[in-house]
Amino acid sequence: MSVLQARKMGLPSMNLGRFKGVPILKQLYLEEQLLRTSSDNWCIINDGTNAPTVVMGLSGKPSELLEVGSVLQDQVPVIKRFTGGGTVIVDPGTIFVTLICNKDDVPGVQPYPRSIMYWSRLLYNEVFKEIGDFQLRENDYVFGSRKFGGNAQSITRKRWIHHTSFLWDFEAGNMSYLKLPTRAPEYRLARSHMEFVCRMKDYMPRSVFIDKTVMAIENQFSMKPVDLDVDAATHDTEFVHSTRLLLKRELEEA
């Protein structure tokens, strides 16, 4: 047995599911089901989604967060997810990384948002070592003062989920679907979307980011790749998802 194998025997196990281009609605269905029905630790990586989609937090209000007229005119899907956090528009240039953990398997992390965010900062410090000026500012991952990663969480009695939308690339025009939020981070300083965010592709290759992320997680968990049927969660009629696609009528009423 190698030294690495011996060390890994003492680490909690984590299943790794990797996807490419899975629709974000299917991904969120899967994550919600894993959080609430599985007892395993999970890392889900989805390299891009299939089409531009707006994703809002659990308590988000379209009238406050979206340019509803443009969203309706261009028929952009709007999802209300099962976790908190802000609003983002995702597309094939977005990389999603989700960590679903049993609270007892992550020593030193309390089941509270701030504690989980601090732990995630240390994890991604390994990924972005010597690349840009990586920081956690309020609840965002930034290079300097420009955001490239938005986070959302949900915490249950024994488990928590922390998922991130990483802006490896994006279409500038899609940002026009989002209003300037009334409750913005202080460091944003009323900057427009294009002044506030940056593209990760200007800092590192896409595949390098994903590989480094897996390596950083492997320092804390014994990772096991698994094949996941992402469609099974969508078609499971026994599990009631709180994540949902907003109806056209709901947007029109907003």
TrEMBL record:
Transmembrane segments: none annotated. This is BPL/LPL catalytic domain-containing protein. Residues 39-225 form the BPL/LPL catalytic domain. InterPro entries: aa-tRNA-synth_II/BPL/LPL (IPR045864), BPL_LPL_catalytic (IPR004143), Lipoate-ligase_2_inactive (IPR053264). It comes from Camellia sinensis var. sinensis (China tea).
